[in-house]
């Protein structure tokens, strides 16, 4: 069936090229860096489920999860004491825990990755993971409960999004946080930021009162969420730089 005739000026060849380019763009264009992090988290979960035996998985978690008592108890500081404050972010307690975190990672991480660039985004991931682990450690220095999950780093990305006032633009068809980074004062004057902060804090307060995430039986390390968020909100500037990188 032929196309209907529309009585309007025919677009120029340049406009046609732009329309064709938009048609080729996927609706949900994830950053390659975020896809890498998602694949890493999913791969680790599959490895634990289908490759390791239960005793091997227990040993794997003890080596890669963040455990505060490792630093305050009568234990020798080994290699895992230095790597676990980063590797814990790639472990998850179940498919629901993993799925929820990956959805939030895609939503907040991809526009941040397109704004910061791959290298700075990965450095930001490591930094906020460390900050999340640090605040949890300060709150529970003698805890033997392993801390796992990417929630701390993802909370850092939420904090970073707040510093851009959640403004978005499309760069070559890719959604990215737009405009200059807001100052702390400007961020706290933004209604969108204040509303998000209020909802986010309430959710974490409810979590801290003893509720758990769907599909999980262990308490949620809500202090780690706050640590990651504060790091992302207050310490974003060094990762943004003078001119934002563009991820290819």
Strand order of the largest sheet: 1-2
Radius of gyration: 21 Å
First-last Cα distance? 39 Å
Would you count the extended β strands for me? 2
Order of H and E elements: HHHHHHHHEEHHHH
Enumerate the spans where pLDDT stays under 50 for 5 or more consecutive residues: 1-27, 212-216
How confident overall, as mean pLDDT? 86
Overall shape: it is globular
Q: If helices are DSSP runs of H or I spanning 4 or more residues, what is the number of helices?
A: 12
Helix/strand/pairing class, anyone? mainly alpha
| Helix share, percent | 55-70%
Q: Report the β-strand fraction as a percent range.
A: under 5%
* Largest β sheet strand count, sense and barrel closure: 2 strands, antiparallel
3D architecture notes:
By secondary structure, the chain is mainly α. It contains twelve helices and two strands. It is 62% helix and 3% strand. It is globular and about 50 Å long.
Structure at a glance:
This protein has helices at 13-24, 32-50, 54-64, 69-72, 79-87, 95-116, 118-139, 151-163, 184-189, 191-208, 222-234, 237-240; strands at 168-171, 174-177.
Topology (elements, then pairings):
Elements: H1 13-24, H2 32-50, H3 54-64, H4 69-72, H5 79-87, H6 95-116, H7 118-139, H8 151-163, E1 168-171, E2 174-177, H9 184-189, H10 191-208, H11 222-234, H12 237-240
Antiparallel strand pairs: 1-2
Helix pairs in contact: 2-6, 6-7, 6-8, 7-8, 7-11, 8-11, 10-11
């Amino acid at each position: 069936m032929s196309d209907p005739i529309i009585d309007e000026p025919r677009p120029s060849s340049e406009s046609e090229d732009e329309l064709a380019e938009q048609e080729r763009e996927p609706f949900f264009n994830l950053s390659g860096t975020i896809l890498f992090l998602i694949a890493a988290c999913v791969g680790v979960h599959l490895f634990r489920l289908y490759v390791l035996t239960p005793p091997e998985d227990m040993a794997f978690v003890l080596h890669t999860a963040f455990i505060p008592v490792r630093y305050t108890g009568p234990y020798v500081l080994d290699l895992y004491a230095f790597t676990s404050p980063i590797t814990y972010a790639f472990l998850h307690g179940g498919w629901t825990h993993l799925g929820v975190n990956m959805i939030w990672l895609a939503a907040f991480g991809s526009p941040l990755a397109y704004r910061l660039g791959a290298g700075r985004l990965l450095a930001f991931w490591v930094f906020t993971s460390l900050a999340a682990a640090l605040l949890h450690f300060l709150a529970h220095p003698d805890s033997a409960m392993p801390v796992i999950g990417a929630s701390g780093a993802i909370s850092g990305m939420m904090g970073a999004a707040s510093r851009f006032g959640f403004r978005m633009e499309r760069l070559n068809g890719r959604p990215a946080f737009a405009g200059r980074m807001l100052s702390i004062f400007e961020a706290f004057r933004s209604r969108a930021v204040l509303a998000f902060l209020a909802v986010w804090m309430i959710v974490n307060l409810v979590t801290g009162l003893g509720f758990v995430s769907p599909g999980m039986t262990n308490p949620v390390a809500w202090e780690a969420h706050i640590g990651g968020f504060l790091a992302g909100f207050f310490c974003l500037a060094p990762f943004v730089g003078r001119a934002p990188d563009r991820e290819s």
